[in-house]
Design goal:
The protein is an alpha/beta fold. It is built from three helices and 40 strands. It has two domains: 93 residues, 3-Layer(aba) Sandwich (Udp-n-acetylmuramoylalanyl-d-glutamate--2,6- Diaminopimelate Ligase, Chain: A, domain 1), CATH 3.40.1390.10; 212 residues, UDP N-Acetylglucosamine Acyltransferase, domain 1 (3 Solenoid).
């Protein structure tokens, strides 16, 4: 990053205050506690407000409503929304890191279409009849199978594997180690106790603006398509089985598993290590706490759920509150039982 304080203000439409040198060159964006004299920092959480009075950062992004209580040595860049402005700057910084051109060695099979302004890292394999659109970045050691389509401005980081027939939209990001289109887990039990593999002849369709985390796996459909709709954000190490469909703008945290043929609605929020059984449907706007187990369809939209077995969040929290009191209640019950026994003895003696 090589931008002046003034450049940064212009890029994010900020208002500069407390600056003696607006042409000072910023080299990096760093947290407010660790920032040095040539860094830009930010204040977007009130818990860190006290650090703004001691930070060494050359400039700090702050909200327009921020009112300092004592002297600040850093320049202040006031913006409408610190977090959104920070994202904007990070995007600009990230773009400058992207590479262009085709490194060697790269293998291109027959009838491959390659768009303009692309990057193919060393040791990439592109299968026959695949189409790579303009401005796509494919980092080293990626495998792209036959008949794959990848839309404009999509990025595949090192080691991504995309099996044959997969469709990936525009402006997607696939992080290292994710696997798209591997066989669904389909095995038919036989009379002799063995299993016969069910051919998986469908594909995976990923729509625009999807991000897929490292080592996440998405299985191809047995027939038809496994579908990840536009705007979906998937964390690392998620497993999505065959014929699953995930609705637009749903976000899923790490280590969640979704069994085959389950349909997740739009705008759902799914925390880490959540498990879904197969062949169920989840209503739009559903929200699930970490480690929840979903064993049946949810029809009512925009509700919060948590626990195993799954219950409304308010119910689960009440149960957990009671669980904390169980040792005390157990002692009380034991004491009362002893008292009852003693009273019975006295009554019998009389």
């Amino acid at each position: 990053m090589q931008l002046t304080i003034n450049n940064i203000c212009e890029l994010i439409n900020g208002k500069l205050e407390n600056s003696t040198n607006p042409d000072f060159l910023i080299s990096a964006i760093v947290g407010i506690e660790e920032a040095s004299e040539n860094h830009l920092s930010f204040l977007h959480n009130n818990k860190y407000t006290h650090h703004i009075y001691t930070t060494k950062a050359a400039a700090v992004l702050v909200d327009k409503t921020f009112k300092p209580e004592k002297k600040i040595s850093s320049a202040l860049i006031r913006v409408d929304n610190v977090y959104n402005s920070l994202i904007q700057l990070l995007e600009i910084t990230e773009i400058t890191k992207f590479r262009n051109g085709i490194e060697e060695p790269v293998y291109l099979a027959d009838n491959v279409f390659i768009g303009e302004n692309i990057y193919l890292g060393a040791f990439c394999y592109i299968g026959k009849n695949s189409r790579i659109a303009d401005h796509v970045k494919i980092y080293p050691n990626c495998y792209i199978g036959d008949d794959v389509v990848i839309g404009e401005n999509t990025i595949l980081f090192a080691g991504v594997k995309v099996y044959s027939g997969s469709r990936i939209g525009e402006n997607c990001i696939l992080h290292s180690g994710c696997v798209i289109g591997s066989d669904g887990f389909g095995h038919a039990p036989q009379k002799d106790g063995t299993y016969k593999k069910i051919p998986q002849v469908g594909n995976v369709v990923i729509h625009n603006h999807v991000e897929i985390g490292a080592n996440t796996t998405i299985d191809r459909a047995t027939i038809e398509s496994t579908i990840i709709n536009a705007g979906v954000k998937l964390d690392n190490q998620i497993m999505i089985a065959h014929n699953v469909e995930i609705g637009e703008n749903t976000v899923i945290a790490a280590q969640t598993g979704i069994s085959g043929s389950t349909k997740i609605g739009k705008n759902c929020v799914i925390a880490g290590q959540v498990g879904f059984v197969g062949h169920i449907q989840i209503a739009d706007g559903s929200r699930f706490g970490a480690k929840s187990g979903i064993s049946q369809s949810i029809e009512e939209p925009d509700k919060d759920w948590f626990g195993v077995p799954l219950m409304p969040v308010s119910t689960t929290l009440k149960i957990h509150a009671i669980l904390k009191k169980l040792p005390e209640l157990y002692k009380q019950i034991n004491t009362q039982q002893k008292e009852i026994i003693e009273l019975k003895k006295k009554i019998n003696q009389e």
